Structures are given as structure tokens and as C-alpha cells.
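Holo model, zinc ion. Inputs:
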Amino acid sequence: MNRKQSGLVIKVGIKSCPECKGEVHKDANICPHCRTQLSEHPKCQR
Ligand SMILES: [Zn+2]
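Output:
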């Protein structure tokens, strides 16, 4: 079975890379597509 969803699919935990517009996990620090560093500041725990 290959059910393909059409239209808007909001994926939780996924953000788009500002450089290549690829799908990147929200916790990812570096885009796996274009190697762009996504988070400018590392972990900032309070
Ligand atoms: Zn990218």
C-alpha cells in the first residue's frame, strides 16, 4: 500500500531549510541537504 497524501501536509517536528528549502528535522543543527548550519546558537539551557 502506498498512500500518498496530497495537498498541505503539516509535519510535526519538521522545518524547512532557509537555504535549500529542504525538509529538516527541527532539532537538526545542520541541514542534511546543503550542510547549512541551522541553529546559530547551540543549546541554551536556562
Ligand atoms: Zn538546506
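The chain has a mean pLDDT of 82. The chain has no helices and two strands.
Archived with the compound record.
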